[in-house]
Structures are given as C-alpha cells and as structure tokens.
Amino acid sequence: MVPSGFETRVLRAESLRDLAAVRDVLTRVFPTDAEARLVDALRGRTHPQISLVAETRAGELVGHILFTPVEIRSPSGASKAVCLGPMAVLPEHQRQGVGSSLVEAGLSACRAVDEPIVVVLGHPSYYPRFGFEPAWDAGLYYGTPGPNPAFMVRELERGALRGASGEVRYHAAFHEL
Q: Which among 11, 26, 34, 77 is least buried, having the fewest CB atoms inside 10 angstroms?
C-alpha cells in the first residue's frame, strides 16, 4: 500500500540549488543547527557521498538524507564502509513514507557504487525495518566498546562484515561540531 501523500513526492540527488532548503529542513527538524553545520562541513570533503532529497511535485524540499564514508579499524587493518546520517523529514511530512523512501533510495545508491556496509547512529526502533542490526552483535562499536542500541549496521553485500570487527571511525567533521 502506498502511504498517504507519497505519490506527491519526488526523490532525487541533491543539487547546488538545494543547499539552503536542505539547511532549512535540518534546522527545522533537529533541536540545534549541529546537523546542518555537519552537512555543510561534509559537502565536497568525502567520496563517495550520496546526498538525496525528497520534494513535492510543486518543488518544496521536504526531506534529506546523507551517506558518507567511515573507516572500520580492527587489529588486522582497516576496511571501508559508509554511514547514514543525518536524515530529516519536515514534521508536517513525516509518517507519509518520505523517510522510508529516502532510506531505501539511499541504500540502493550505496549498492550502485559497491558500498558493502552501512552503519547508522539512529533510532533503534526505526532502522531495523531496513535490515539494520545492532552493530555490537557484528563486533563493531563507535566511541566506547560495548553495546549501543542506537548504533546499527547493515550488510549490503553478503559476507562483507566477515573480519571487519572493531571501531568505526567517522569523518573528522563529525567531531568538529
């Protein structure tokens, strides 16, 4: 079943003309402008970078999602993955499938550029519906070793997590805010 209002949405890659509207969405959704500053800081500094927007057919930007590289550091070396975040949908457009569409489109875009692993630091009740599982169960952690229900991982390529246990290191921009 298509969620109410979904058919009025368009998903596409972020363009230069979207920068101010993305910033507006992020500052309206989150309690501070930290996520908006993070997205501004990451633009053009990472590769790959998948940045998608959702807009109404009338052209109003109502959602945004970003995927950027992370590094998994283990005693045997480092491996690459991407992180999902931040993701935001304007409150008046939430619970209409916009966020789900952004996540699914983003995961598809990650597969298209051969990214085998995606991590997210997010709501533990939201992301499992997209196949995310507790990262600690896969031997991954962020910050301090140990379980963190908000830190999750998804394999996009079967077996990609074999031998990839250890600390997940985000881009320095995540720590500069």
A: 77
